[in-house]
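Homework help board

Subject: predicted structure for assignment chain

Our instructor gave us this sequence and asked us to write out the predicted structure in token form, then describe one feature. I got the tokens but I'm not sure how to describe them. Can anyone check?
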Amino acid sequence: MSGPEEEILAVVKQVAAKEGLDLELVTFSDYVLPNEALNAGELDANAFQHVPIWRTRSRRVATRSSPFGNTIVTPIGAYSHKVKSPR
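My token output:
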């Protein structure tokens, strides 16, 4: 995703290059598109979501992907004047 993750992965790309890996970073501004691109074979991997969300989506949409490592997860805030608890 664009934003902090993009900045962090730019550093990851530099570190990977020192190990002989050439990473091409593709950024998205929509949380659905990375999974669709991965499933269509347009990407080799994505690194933007945690396993519980991947599992939920995989139950609803046929996918050929599977988790193989960890990535960063940045916090997302939710604010409301009406809702007092997320449950």
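Reply (TA_rk): Your tokens look well-formed. For the description, you could write something like this. Residues 4-60 form one domain. That's the kind of observation they're looking for.
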